[in-house]
Amino acid sequence: MKRSSYAWIALLVLIAGISAFKMADTKAPKAEGIKWMTLAEAEAKTKKEPRKIFIDVYTDWCGWCKKMDKDTFSDPEIAAYVNKNFYAVKLDAEGKDPITVGGRTFNYNPEYKSHELAVALLNGQMSYPTTVYLDEKLNMLSPVPGYLDKKTFTKIIRYFGENFHKTMTWQEYEKQK
Q1: What class is the 36-176 domain?
Q2: Which pTM value belongs to this model?
């Protein structure tokens, strides 16, 4: 084979490789993640379209919080379920900005080194991460402390999302599922 033939073959292989790479890059759309918002945004939205509110109470230094973001909240099925049935809120338990909800303003409390809203939502039991569930009228359903893997989180979010909490205890629900 002539040298120019090798050059053409190499060029064709290169073009085919680039084309295949571009096609692979555009085939699967990226799964949508959880649509996080502030509690004020969730409160406003629930007045127009009532939904329960799910709050992830975290801190920047919490390794288990980061693991839950990466392993649990990034799961496409979990994200789709949360986005369809809840308003999802991220709350930095050590955030310094005032937060007004239900007509009351909560501030950072330097004595606790925590935000007053986090203290209220966690009933003073400052454990991270904690997921907090509120009903459509912002009434507390339950705080759930600790890291939750996909399977456990799915079970809990469905317990509240599908209103099983209204007809049975958690223990009864767990026996069924």
Answers
A1: alpha beta
A2: 0.80
